[in-house]
Fold these 4 entries.
Entry 1:
Amino acid sequence: MLHREQVMMIRPQVASKFKDQQDISQPASFDEKNRLSTDIDAKLNKLHLQTFRNYKIAHLDLESDAVVLIGPNGAGKTNVLEAVSMLAPGRGLRRARREEIGYLDDQQQREAYCPAPAWSVFANLNGPQGATSVGTGCFAGQPEGARRAVKINGLNAAQADLAQVVTLSWLTPQMDGLFIGSPSARRRFIDRLAIAFDPAHSGRITRYEKVWRERARLLADGQADDKWCISLEKTLSETGIAISATRSALIEDINRESRHLTSSFPLVRAKLTGQVTDWLADGHPAIEIEDRILYAARQNRLAKTSQMPGPHETDLVMTFKGQSAHLASTGEQKALMISMVLAHAVLQDKRLGRPPILLLDDVAAHLDSARRAELFSLCSDISGQIWYSGVDTHAFSALRQTAQFISVSHGQLFQ
């Protein structure tokens, strides 16, 4: 079994060789007796949207630690949550393409072709660096693939810089299908959670995917120089071990944190499968695993196949009542996802002192009244702001005295 000390040694040993990436952010030591932080109040105070989805313009003044968006289906509740999620690095909770996000008026919607419209999201917030203003968006007519603009306290910044000023986590109905979806979707889910503790994880994944594509292209074109392929495979093996170690450490921590949550929500019993993950779990040294990967890659290459062991083979497996989670009911799967997201949020609060702002889209839909009440209680113990959305006001009646309710109606917000 790979112990935490061994995992922590693997990360800098492997990843520090990549000079063009961020430095490794070592997680703080974990103390089971730590209490949730009270000195950091992670919350949005103001939110302003302009030509975002179905909002031509919208503004919210936020006062509460809990926000409840209420409105009929299609009114724009998830669009507000998506706007908040754009304050984090990446493509937001829908993973939407840039051209899908901007507001289109009636005439533009009827046109056969319309250039990608501009959109922007601006917020004043309290986060790890105190009071901060954050803005992000795209200009009209930007070329396809162009990065969205980011400003922090009025200064141009990179998307990666957002992770330093705000921490966000979310749960959406689309994620309920995680158990029956593709392994790649489950890997993306784990990687998004891992980046909160190891910001350099994102850079390693980008590097791994780029080098993987380059190797695949060379092999497909029949232009594979042996020395160049060995160089690419060495990079893939080193980077892949670091990625796998980070994922494994995270899953181990989430499983443990779930056991410490006092609730009726199911325990998280998750594990990762895949050749490299198994070697790490068996306690093999990183240098030995690297040699195994390189040997397998060369043998497969000589056999005219491009396969090699790596994090691209990893899958997340969760069990519920002794069987695979994909066999559980919809309500049970929802409860499992809630358990995992809450354990991750509490872990951030305990270890990093950086509680996330949680976005829980339509989370009450498949929970009975007792489970809803317990969810609200668990969330209230987290030091970050909680955003809920739903159709039925009654489902959130327990929050009436503490939360800020916002009515959503066809691209308009009423406080």
Note: Residues 6 and 186 are 25 Å apart (CA to CA).
Entry 2:
Amino acid sequence: MTVVPGAVGAWRRAALDAVGGYPEDTLAEDQDLTIAIQTQGYRVQFDPSAVAWTEAPESFRALAKQRFRWAFGTLQCLWKHRAILRTRRPSGLALVGLGSLSQNQIAPALLKTKQCRLTALVSGSAPTMSALAARYKISASSCYTYDDFDRIAENPDVDFVFIELPNSMHAEFTARAARAGKHVLCEKPMANSVKECRAMIAGCERAGVQLAIAYRCQFEPHHVEAMRLAHERVFGAVKFIEASFGFRIGDAGQWRLKKSLAGGGALMDVGIYVVQAARYLTGEEPEWLFATEAKTDRAKFKEVDETICWTMKFPSGVIANCSTNYVVNGIDRCWVGAERGWFELNPAFNYTRIEGRTCEGPMRLPQTDHFALELDDFARCIVEKRPSRVSGAEGLADMKVIEAIYKSIERGKPVTLR
């Protein structure tokens, strides 16, 4: 769909916010908006029961003026969105690591994207890779082991890699992908330390490739709306945030419970969503925090954290009370209190369904595939040569907070962040 005429179309507010509102730099603003919104992953739907009124030109001169304006505006739109039109094929992606998330969420999401296609696989498990290659029609020459991953530099069908490996492997494979000339989308947390994050950013900058972190919530409509409500002060200035995310983890032998691979426990895995939410809702970095940890199963969680609660204070005075755990299901929420009202997401962070409401009623927003949205966005960033809103700097900022939380637990007192 190239244009939804302004006189007979209607857009969701979240979609408008996602593209920065109505454009003012082209004469065919309805066409400009139609293209921009669709590139953000939204779809145009026809409503046969809708009714609209519009005016018609009253003279030939007025008609000619209208047609000239629209024709010139169309040329402006073609130029403005030339990067999309210039792309002859969707960006090719290599999926690095074929665990549950890759198989059940990311690979299926690729079938829903408009800007991406799965062109290569990387795994340490030959049977898993063989099965996935057969399902998605990936040739044997585009299947790599961790040992021969560097050969991916010779594959012109791979534009970027999506790293879905244990946290301790993120830095290594980001560096190897960058040296191979491939852009990098890395699963969160970005790495196991601030030092590794900085090295990843520097390596990608030296190689001239983009680095983004897979913060899917920043593209999800309910989260986009929550950010708008906060930043535009719809209910006044934000004063208080309460956010929690956790679940009961299973197999005690999995890599997420091994510190050498995961770097930490619940905080690194799902608590990071809470850290992210507090940061992007306030638009600030915390200046002070205090954290405490509890363990009810010391055998299972002998290497990593089980339950952590922490409080963060932001420069504007906002207080965020947060928690994460690996022992209780059903904790998945984010509540924001402002001067004249409140809004919340509950459930907030899972990838199956998000619901939101405000003090004025429910958020009536579409359920989307978060992974498809983030993949398409990064593909557009590569084509348009612009930085991602979830660049490596975002991953580094989160890791600074996470390290401060662990430091506060270790010291038993508040920590000041600089």
Note: The longest strand covers residues 238-246.
Entry 3:
Amino acid sequence: MPLRVLVISNLDSARPFGQFLRPFHLGRGLARQGHEVANVGVDCSSAAFGPTWSTGTKSLGRLTRLASMALREFHPDVVYAHELRPASAALLRPGGPPVVVDLHSLPSVEWRGYVGRESGRTAALYRLAGARAGLSERLIAHRADRVICAGANVRDRFTELYRQRVPTEVIVNGVEHELLTAPPAAESPYDGEPGDGHAVTTLPGAVTPSNDRARHFLEAVAEHLDGRGPQVTLHVLGADGPNGRSRIRFHGFQPDLWPWIDHADVCMLPYPPEAALCGGPRNKLLESLARGRAVVTTEEGTRGLEEVAGWPGVHVVGDHPASFADALLLATGRGGRGLEERREKMLARLEWDVLATDLVHIGRGFLFSIGCIQAMRCHTNTCPTGVTTQNRWLQSARRSRGRLRARQQLQPDPDHR
């Protein structure tokens, strides 16, 4: 039974990284499996696998209006909302189909963590951002029908903060099939670049506290590399900056990351403890592993996929820039041959299309839990149970029944000891 899924997200085709990746790849994976998928986002021009509505901005009001329009015109079985603002847009509208919210991270926890390291106006702004994020998370905890988390740590913290008011599942981040199977890029972007070896990382130009701290950490690493051989050049993609230093080169936004990863001697995840996130595995880590490259990372860089710390070719070092610099010198020139054997394992577990199947099971399972009997009369308002009805009166009855069953599923078994 194909599902009709409306994806509401911050998807922005002009910025194909960060919050673009998860809703795009999961949505495309659903479409490849024969499900009908529509998108509401900032710029959905790249989502050519179904109807789209583009807001042109991250305004909550605009997003809410277009989400309502999409619900009326597309008649979805399930709404998939990625991150806080899209989730608020889906949940603030009364009635409607079941809403599954996907949280890559818990921003309220992250903002509170940043407050302790700042002072004055910056700390006040972070505190305000944390309070706003907390309000959205409470809305999700009270109104969402299911919550998906990108990591077990996100799920555990969410249920701890909000007392597991809503059932939660875990679907980690993934990688593209092409990224796992494509041959190495023919041309090297490092031709003509200075240095005996090349290490690369991606720090998107939209400055966030986490990426900002990673950049400062990398600058400290460069200082520890000065005067030592071999000469390793640190390449930063996604951000602009001065290229006067011989050790750090900024290359701005790069539409194709594969050649930079394929021809690098080592990939870096330079995240100190103060750049920690309450989220799932970092896409940077998954992309590097998928291409079989050597990796130098702090412990924060492996967050959500800690098992890779024991893989050959993955160097997890302490949080001091000097230790990171030493590991770069050691790893440069060795390549990532030891990671090749892990590609097949990643293909089986972490390919986006495989993860999209998990999303289908979650959505379909929820429809069954609130009374779907597969009468095959979806979108007609003649379904005997009214699970996907667009009739407002039937919607209110269905949502009440669904929440009651969800709460019953969360109640402890009195006979269990």
Note: The radius of gyration is 23 Å.
Entry 4:
Amino acid sequence: MRYFILYILMMGAFPLYAQTTIKGKVVDKETNAPIDNVSVYISNSSNGTRSDAEGNFTLTTRSQGQFELVFSIMGYTIKMVPVNTSQQTGFLNVALSSKSNDLPEVVLRTYIKDGWKVWGKHFLNQFIGSYPLSADCKILNPEVIHFQFKKLDSVLIAFANETILVENKKLGYLLHYDLSEFRYDFINGLIFFQGYPLFEDLQNSTSKKVLKKRMEIYEGSVMHFMRSLYTNKLRENNFEIRQMVKTINIGGKPIIIDGNTKYDNAHKVSFELTSGVLSADSVDYGENENTAALFFKNFLQVTYTKKVAPAYYSRSYNTNGQGIVSEITLINKQPLLVYSNGTYYEPTSLLLSGYWGWSEKIGYLLPFDFTPIKSEITTLAEISPILLGGERSMRYLVAIQNSAEARGTGGILGAYA
């Protein structure tokens, strides 16, 4: 019942904040003819619309700050337009390029015949996730996904000519995913994919079972951690962070490694915790009134103490079952900018491993306008920043680096740039 109570509170909070109405027209870049039925949406949200017969669209949002407006339709190249609600948004004239005119892309994107039969299972494990992430979650149109394999570099590339439709019954979403890039580097064990998701509620989205599952996925997630870091409430929300150093043995000498270190699974990775439980303000600070900055050296171990990892994960990767444990490191050795709704930037800077390396995939993906139930929020002041978003809510990027100590679970580089 409290789910519906929170919904009422959310609706009551909205009038306190200005809505932004975005209007515009979508046309063909070559002919200037209007394009109807174009999907227009705020990336990684449940907020979208379509253009009418004259190419016109109207989208109303309560999201505040900067975000990307995505324009997608079959036969045209996806286009992203940055929108900042702190500035006056005029009428948008958006011109889409036909894919048939993009000759370099057509020439380069020859693909493997029957590629789904060869690479489909591997793609699903890395994109959707393995069981139980993949339970009740399936791609409805796998025929739009094609593959290339570069033998010289041992790199698998996947791309889609149309929007990928992912039905996730356990979370009550139909995910419209415009895939920009997917590649798997077999030599270095690195997986990277990025795209633009739009969430649509399924008919079961209001059931107690689905709402409970969404909250279960949220608790202990990267989104939950970043929101807790932003509000300086890590301990209150059951997160513990500790400094960590990792080493590998080369020629009898321990070598300190970071997210940029190249090594194979033959190397045994050792780690040492070099601090006790740290406070949030020991690793983050206020960049400005809307942004926090996360900075630390080496690795940071993150433990979510409220629940243990799922039994399947514990059995598969031989964990001790004492809370959910993940590690993060800053590849670029620069501060990571964190926003109120849990997004963070720069997307290529954060490398995750451990539990998050296994769990942070499409099968467990939530939109950044997701609002947790009342047990996690006590005041409207805490509700509103999450509802309204942060400075960035754009593309979803993921990269996974397999590591020996994770026994193949890998690390995940997840970001919303």
Note: The chain has a mean pLDDT of 79.
